[in-house]
Amino acid sequence: MYKSKKKKMKRLKVNDFFQFSNQIHFQTDKNFCRFITKKYMKKLLPFLVVLLVFFSLQAQKKKKTDALKPLDSLTKEMVAKKGLITTYLDEENKLYFELSQDLLEKELLVVTRFAQLPANYSAYLNAGSKTAQQVIRFVKKGKKILLKQISYNNIASAEEDPIAISVKENNFAPILAAFDIKNKETDRYLIDVSNHFMADSPGFNVIRKGDKDRYKFGGVDKKRSSIDSANSFPKNTEIRHTLTFKVNKPPRANRTNTFSFQINHSFIVLPEDPMPVRYEDDRVGWFSLSKIDYSSDALKSDEYSIVRRWRLEPKDKEAYLKGELVEPIKPIVYYLDPATPLKWRKYFKLGIEDWNSAFKKAGFKNAILAKDPPSKEEDPDFSPEDVRYSTVRYVASTTRNATGPSVSDPRTGEILESDIIWYHNHLRSYRNRYLLETGAANPKARSLNTPEEEIGEMMRRVISHEVGHALGLPHNMKASSAYAVDSLRSGDFTQKYGIATTIMDYARYNYIAQPGDEYIRFVRQLGPYDDYAIEWGYRYYGLSPKVEQSQLKAMVDAKSLDPMYMFGGRGNDPNSQTENIGDDPIKASTYGLNNLKIVAKNLMDWTLSPNDTYDDLEELYGEMVGVYRRYIYHVHSMIGGVYQTKHNTNQTNTVTYQNVERAKQLAALDFLKSNLWQTQNWLMDNRIISEIKGEGGLISLQNLQRSALNRLLSVKRLNRILSANITLIGQGMEASELLNHLYADLMIAPKNIDLSQKSLQIHFATQLKSLLNEDELNPAIRADIQGLLSKIKKLAKKKSKTANQNSKNHFNYLKEVAQVELD
C-alpha cells in the first residue's frame, strides 16, 4: 500500500497538489501521515502554507457572507425616514443611508449650511450661511459604495466628439468617501455614514483655512459631537449634526477653548428635465456659471457663461406669445421665517412682491409670492433648512447685514431654492444712516426713535435688494450715476424714478436733497434698470438658447449705452462707486457735506434724551465721520479715474476705457483742497468730543487726511495715471501735474498753518521720499518726485527764516525730511 502511494506521490505535479491534498486531508492512517511528513515535508511545506492560507481565506469569506443579513433585519430597531435617501438613526448615534438601485449614478446637489454656530465666531457667517455646494454621485464598486464629486466646468457639448474622451479622462472625479455595504440584498444598499458626518469631511468646508489658522483648530471631539436629526422627503434629504472642535486660540469672549457648530446638509435631486440655458451678456448684470466647451468649432476651447435664474414658463404659452400677461406654471414662493417679528412681516412681504412689477415687463403676473410660515397642522415638516422651501430668515445677531444666497443647478443655472437672511442689528445701521444722510432735509429722520413706518420702508427695500440677488442679479454700481444731481432734489422725479435706476446699487438714501426741497423720496426703490434686467433674464421665447441669444443681444444693443440701463462694477470708474448718487460726484458731495454740517450742529439734540448715556452719541459721531469720508472719496476717485463702458463691436461712438477729463480731475483736486486738506473744524465740535473721546478727535481726522494722501501717492495710482494718459483715449491729468498740484495745495496755499496742516506737510514729504524706494515706480515719476522734494526743501528753508519759533521748528524739521541722499 505504501509503495503504491509512494509511486503516486512521485508523479504528483504542482497543479494536482490541491486535489491530492483534499484527498489526504481526511486520511486517518497515522503511519501514512508520518511517512509523508518524513519523506516530503521539506518539499511540501511551501504548498502546505499556501493551502492553509487558502482554506483560511475561504472560511473568512464564507463567514463574512453568512454575516450579511437582510436590510430590514438590520434596521428594525432604528427610526426610518423614507424619501430620496431613506435614513436610519439609532440611539447610539449611528446614521445609515439606504440607497435604492435607481439612485446609484444619479447626480445629487449637496448644500451645506450652518444651522447654528458660536457667538463672535465670524462677522460674515451666521445661521443659514452656506459653506459648500457640490454635485455628488453614489457609485457601487464591488462591496463598497463610493461617494464621488462631479464637476460641470469642463464639458464637451458634442458627446459624439472624440475629444469627449479626453475631457472625461482629464477631469477624473475625486472620491470623497467609501462605505462598506452592510446588507445582502442586491437592489438596495445599506451603508453606515456615521463617521462621515462626525467629522469635517472632504466637501463640507465647515472650517475655512483662514479660520483654522486664526483660531488654531484641533480635531473634532467625537465625544462632544453628535448626529442630531435625519429627515427625508421625495426630492431631498436633510441631515443635521453637531461638530465640536478644540481650539488653541479662541476669541477673548470664548474661554472654553471649544467651538461647537450645528451643520445642515441638503441632498437634492437635480431636475430630470434640465432647464434650457441662457447665455450671459456682460452688458447686463447677472450671476453666472462659467463653462469651457472643448467641442467648440473655434480653434480653441470655448469659454462662456450661463446665467443663474429661476425656471419661469407661462401656463398659457399661446396667450403669452401674443403679449398677454400670464401666470407662470410654477411661481417663485418665499416663506417668512417663523422667527420674524409680526410687526415687520408686512414689510418683508412687500419687499418680496415688489418684484412683480418687473416681472410684468417680462410678461408674467403673480410671478413671485410671499407667504407666512405654515403652521404645524398645515405642514408639520416645514423647516427653513429644507430646500423645498425658499425662505426669508430672521437671524438674532449683532451683525449689521442682510444677504440673498441661492442654490442653482450647475448644469443649467436653474435656481432651485434660496434663503434671504436678515440680521436683526441691520435695523440699527439703517436708523443711523437715515438720520445722518437725510436729517438735514427730512424732519422724520431727526431722532433715534425712527417711526415704525419709516423703518418698515427701509426694511422693505433691503429685502427687495436681497431678493434681487436671489433672482440672479448682482450689484450694479454704475446705476447710481445715471440721474442728474439736481433731479434728485425734485419731488416729482424722485417719487417716480427713485434715487438710482436700480435697487441693486448701494444707493441707500437721498443725501442730495436740501432743506426746503419738498415731496422728496429719501429711500431707494426699484427702477427702470430692474425692469430691463428682469425682462432680459426671464422673458420666455420658446426657442433654442442659441436662437433666442440673437434676440436678447438686440435688446441689449438698443439700451446698454443709455445711462438708465448701463451695468458696471467698481474698478477705477468714478461712475461705478458704492454709496454715491448723481452724475456729478463733486456737486453731489458738496450737497452732501452741506447737509452733514447741519446734522453735526444738531447731533446732540437729535440723539440725546434725559437720563441717556452717551453711547449712541459716540456711535453716531463715529458713523458721521464715516459718511464724511465717503463723500470725500466719491470725489477722490475721480483723480486718475478711467470710465468703463461695456459694449459690443456693433455699438459705435464709444470705447470701453476712457480717461476722466482733465478739467474734472483738476476740479476734484480743488474740492479736496477746500474739504479735506483744510482742517474741517466742524467735525471737531468739542461739546461732542468731550463727552465721548478721552483722547480727543484730532488724530483720527488727521489719519483720514493721511490715508487719502497715501492713496493719491500710491505707486499703483501714479503708474496708472502715467500709462492711461499716454495710451487711452481722452486727455486726463498727468502724474507730474498731480504732484505739482498737491505741492501747491499743501505747501504753498496754507498761510497761518495749524497743527493738522503741519502734520500733512510732513506726511507729504515723507510719502514722496518713501516712493523713491519703490522699485515698481516708473522712472519718469521718480525724477519728478526728486525734483519736488528739492522744492520742498528750498521752501522750508526760506520759510524757516521768517516764521515764529513754533513754525520755525516745523520748517526746520520739514527741511530735514525732504533731504534726499543721492548714491
Q: Could you describe the 3D structure shown?
A:
The chain is an alpha+beta fold and 823 residues long. Among the domains are: 2-67, no CATH class; 72-270, no CATH class. Helices cover 40% and strands 17% of the residues. Strands 4, 5, 6, 8, 10, 11, 12 and 13 form an 8-stranded antiparallel sheet that branches. The longest helix has 38 residues, at 30-67. It is globular, with a radius of gyration of 36 Å. The N and C termini lie far apart (110 Å).
Question: Can you summarize the main beta sheet?
Answer: 8 strands, antiparallel
Mean pLDDT: 87
Radius of gyration: 36 Å
Please report the distance between the alpha carbons of the first and last residues.
110 Å
Helical segment count: 25
**Helicity level:** 40-55%
- List segments where confidence is low: pLDDT < 50 over at least 5 consecutive residues: 1-29, 163-170
Number of strands: 23
Query: In what range is the share of β-strand residues?
Result: 15-25%
| Overall 3D shape | globular
Query: Strand pairing plus helix content: what structural class?
Result: alpha+beta
